[in-house]
Amino acid sequence: MRHIKKSVGLRAFEVSNNFVLIIISACMFLPFVIILATSLSSEASIIREGYTIWPREWSLDAYNFVMETNAIGRGYMISIFVTIVGTAISVTITAMAGYALSRNNLKYRNFFSLLFYFTMVFSGGLVPWYIMVARTLGLRDTIWALILPLCFNPFNMLLIRNFFKTLPDSVIESAKLDGAGELRIFLSVILPISLPGMATITLFYMLAFWNDWWLSLLFIDDSTLYPLQFLLRQVLSNIQALTSGLARVVKISAIPKETVQMATSVITIGPIIFVYPFIQRYFIKGLTVGAVKG
Fold first, then answer.
1. What pLDDT sits at residue 87?
2. Which domains does the chain have, with CATH numbers?
3. Which pick of 39, 185, 251, 265 has the fewest CB atoms within 10 Å?
């Protein structure tokens, strides 16, 4: 096979393009390096010398302060459980609703789509929503209060619906000729070729469940059910209260305020950093590669 020679201009463009991308990537990665370095530094060095990309004085005081203040381990397990279970339920409901609304033979599909879109524009308000979740459904002080209120997002449903509409009808028609029903088509045909779209809404739901602390503030009074984000929010709130003079018996200099803020960021984003690369690879795959035989 003959190799096509690249012109000098094309090579120059590729080199400059790669250089620009490297610079942009470094700028995006630099804040994380500063956060990590600050969390591993002593509070005195941060106050004295400011933020650096390499710790001037190594210290684990921030992490020790966070770990000793609250039951971080239990909070981690609750957050992981809520994220896994909530994401699984949310993706299942969202994908099934999106697939049903993407089919042209569904009666009143435009009406149902309008109803979902209406909830994105207008809301019943915080008080009715709180009464429904806490009293009508009786979810207060239960683990399901952290899962069910976030189980469906109309934006994600419309996103996956539009994705399903781009799939060729010939795939579904071929499955119907083989005697497959709607559920079998959805599970065996549609989902395998929809990994990019499914990965997108999965990532959105994972981030929503993992970063949520608002539901805990509203519905959870039992400290054994506090997720990680809410516990870390309490740590930062306590530090802010101490440094504001609300507890003058504590020496302000002994509280690692700046380093604790960075340590909490590292602790919270850790799992997402490890999960994201496994989901990201599905974004670059073809939508229907191999779905229709030529």
1. 93
2. 8-59 (no CATH), 62-280 (1.10.3720.10)
3. 251
